[in-house]
# Entry
Amino acid sequence: TTTAMLSAILQNSALIGAISKEFDSNFRYINDSLSFEADESDESFILSNPYCSIVLNTEPEHMEYYKYDTKRFYDAYQKFLDIAKLRVINAEDTFLKDYQKEAIRLYPSKDITNISYFLKDGQPHTKFTLKDMGEFEIWGFGEHIALDAAMAILAANQSMSVEKIKENLPKYQGIKKRFDVVQNHENFVVIDDYAHHPTEIKATLAAACQAKEKKSKVIAVMQPHRFSRLRDLFKDFCTCFNDADVVIVSDVYPAGEKPLESASRETLIEGLRAHGHRETWPLNKPEDLAAMIAKIAKSGDYVVCLGAGSISSWAQDLPKKLEENGGKL
# Structure
């Protein structure tokens, strides 16, 4: 998301890990300046030779690659920052707060203020004040959207005026599968989101809570991605759905992994219920989703489909399936 925002501001070439709605692709060529999304999953980001490194957080992820060696994991981030001439970091991150070398530091809790949310032409927008740079407006809902935009703005401001940044920022129109509004109907809203890590899930559900009416519900449909991730972050998965009124859990999307007894649809449901989620239900097969939603949801509710596997197709098909089944929320 931050990469797509930065490319929108700079109007440069881009290579990102999702489809930008601005140019309907994950890649575009404009000039020899490139905003790219570096990949920490296989440590390849330390080979990218960046002029500017932007790091929002260093939460442990893809630890199977790092052999569950946290020192190696954090050393990789250290290298990624060290090789850049310009660094922009979230100084409230547990690891980044102790980074010693010169960097542009953002302290979100005090540098980002006056956050508000509103709809413009039916699309979600966030407004916020950044340091002493004034007010900014960006597509999307949520504090995490303000954080992403703030990091992109601080990086761009090293070569571009604040006035030009504000002029270009509206060119960012979101990216597919990031709070992607599949259906915005008077009776229901369906969101497709790539969130598959607990922190991402928590942020997406918080954004849905901010978007909905007070009396409406947030219904989360979760397809866990990888057995190893569910196992390694199990406690976090059990507590990241607190903003959801109802949680529907499907089978784990394996992504080539073999099943684990300790990480399954059933164990996650048990864990969620143990943490107070009484309205947690299994999705036996994708074909059952429309009927479940028709029974559970009411007018104004937000149905948020979460995951990095095949769940996106379920979200895309859900409005049509509901109509076919005569289900109206």
Observations:
- The longest strand covers residues 112-120.
